[in-house]
Design a protein that fits this description.
single chain, about 350 residues, alpha/beta, inorganic pyrophosphatase (n-terminal core), Diaminopimelate Epimerase, Chain A, domain 1, 2 domains, 6-stranded mixed β-sheet, 5-stranded parallel β-sheet, 14 helices, globular
Length: about 350
Amino acid sequence: MKIYHLSHTDLDGYGAQFVTAHYFKNLQFFNSNYGREIDEKFSEILNLLDDNEPSVILITDLNLTMSQCEDFEERLKGKNAKLWLLDHHATGAECASAYGWYFLDSSRCATKITYDFFAKILGANDKLAKFCDVVNAVDIWLKDEKDFEMGKVCLGLVANAKEINKVMFERENNEYIEFLLAQASKFFDEKNDYIGLDSAVHSIKKEFFKFDKDDTLSNLISAYVVNLLKQNREKFAISYNEHRGILTYNIGNTSVIGNDFLVANPDFDFFIDVTNKKTLSFRANGKVDVSAMARHLVGGGGHVNASGGLYANFKDGYSYAAIKEQIVELINKKTQEDL
């Protein structure tokens, strides 16, 4: 049996996945905010289902609308898959009363609900139970609980874990957050050293990104992301006239990562990063004038090796494929106009 686990993008959402990772191995994680993104992630999961293998679609820390419940149940008909939802948001009460697979308990966070659900079947674990108490204390804001301050540190730890873009690298982003939570759990003892955890966050992050030698966190992150881009370069590759480049989305630290990628991959001529704010950042390493490219594509400009512009018609999305399609269409349109 395979479990496809869709959860929220905060501490409680990732905490629920931390719990399932303890109990199961045949897992694939997805994370979503509310609204249309849930629908897109559900569709993505449906496309991965194998009728020859029984599956469970587990949704945690996300409440659905009635129309979503109806749609999801209908689309699962004939599939070798079951749907379970474990949540604590009171706004899901109508859905919970209408669907047997929709479990709602507003007295506990989703992480704790998930743990209690599986612990009854597969056995309790003291360390995991403590982890759930920490998440629960901050998620439902139990200010008088002894775990509350520790929970606040963990809340910030997840909220600020933006080093790996989840749209481009969802699996690696989830592995990163799971690592952070596992390291944070080492502080969950009788000392309740939340200040110690807060002080250790920088070192914990460096430990994840460090490969063969120590460096600044910024340099370690850049090397890690460049390696991921290199491993997936064909997926991210685009063309502009006779030049070959790579397209990223909200990659962050564009100047450093863009230059490092182009130096490490000399067969690529340019680097473009598009953001949810509709901006495009262009980088090159002497093989193409990206100021001319930026001007041609979006009326932008700048320097020969570093330029930018605004793509006003860009529609933000949750799928890299949909994002890339828009940029490819823009390039094709502009280059064909010149023929």
